[in-house]
């Protein structure tokens, strides 16, 4: 009578979770088996048969798998293995070894190809829209890498392993390629490298600058101003935008443009020149005040020249037609000036039309302004005191 088979035990060549879980398409470690005992107890009388199962229920013998040990092929699905030992009239099935095959990591696709201006910060790199990252055991770790040539790869600068799988590239100094390595499963058994993205460096010509013009204050009734910025550099385009206040641009892409509808007080306009991925910006302030018409003046030719003329602060002669008439107390016209029809505007210096000094006293002025921008007419009248002390 033969004894029952014993010591028919099997295990992976290296124990532990890393050896019982792998990624689909990988080859497991060899399964080793102990020398069975019992049966005939005659050395060499033992035979073995390895079998596999997809569910630990239905078993199929593996062709030509008759050695003490067994090397499984690459696996694409979770599989159980066991060994049958036979000696004489006795046989026994071993315990099982389960090798879990995790699905390969899929959809490791990143988006974010960019052309970025030198010294600008690129947009973050992240998972592309579409199917979500999948596979492995459903939990992922990340490592972003960079390469100047797509051949030699190193860990990307800065924080390169955020748990959300995104990466913020540093300020641009040179063209750089990026990819994302994704790992999942015990001992990172599933690994995937993403597609490669390239961040291309753009730059402006050396010494490029931009100026939106001088800050200015105007005293206006029609709330119109002429802006004059540097023209765009070669290959670039420009655009005006409102930062503060109000206004309507005659042509927001023209560096020399007229603005109407300013608001009283501070108006700030931004001139942006764009070439490729690069931008230059500068802003100009235009403060709008009501016109200031003096109530008197003293044309005494003092050395400092202060208050020697009747000067109206707020005239915008390039954009207005202005007419000023001075009447004496009897209502007789004594002085007139205008910039109409190419005439030169002159502030009243206390002389009459013939250039003779007028006596001290109170005079009456009539001012008429016509906007060249919108045809708006402004009229103002009042008294002015002429003193010669």
Structure description:
With 389 residues, this protein is mostly beta strands. The protein has four domains: 3-102, Immunoglobulins (Immunoglobulin-like); 110-202, Immunoglobulin-like (Sandwich), CATH 2.60.40.10; 216-289, Immunoglobulins (Immunoglobulin-like, Sandwich); 296-386, Immunoglobulin-like. 1% of the residues lie in helices and 42% in strands. It is built from one helix and 30 strands. Strand 27 (320-327) and strand 28 (333-338) form a beta hairpin. It is rod-shaped, with a radius of gyration of 45 Å.
Low-confidence stretches: none
Might you state the CATH topology name of the largest domain? Answer: Immunoglobulin-like
CATH superfamily of the largest domain: Immunoglobulins
User: What helical percentage do the residues reach?
Assistant: under 10%
Q: Structural class given helices, strands, pairing?
A: mainly beta
CA gyration radius, whole angstroms: 45 Å
CATH architecture of the largest domain: Sandwich
In one word, what is the shape? rod-shaped
How many helices does DSSP assign?
1
Question: Which properties best describe this structure?
Answer:
389 residues; mainly beta; Immunoglobulin-like; 4 domains; 6-stranded mixed β-sheet; 1 helix; 30 strands; 1% helix; rod-shaped
Question: What is the structure about, briefly put?
Answer:
With 389 residues, the chain is an all-beta fold. It is built from one helix and 30 strands. The chain has four domains: 3-102, Immunoglobulins (Immunoglobulin-like, Sandwich); 110-202, Sandwich (Immunoglobulin-like), CATH 2.60.40; 216-289, Immunoglobulin-like; 296-386, Immunoglobulin-like (Sandwich), CATH 2.60.40.
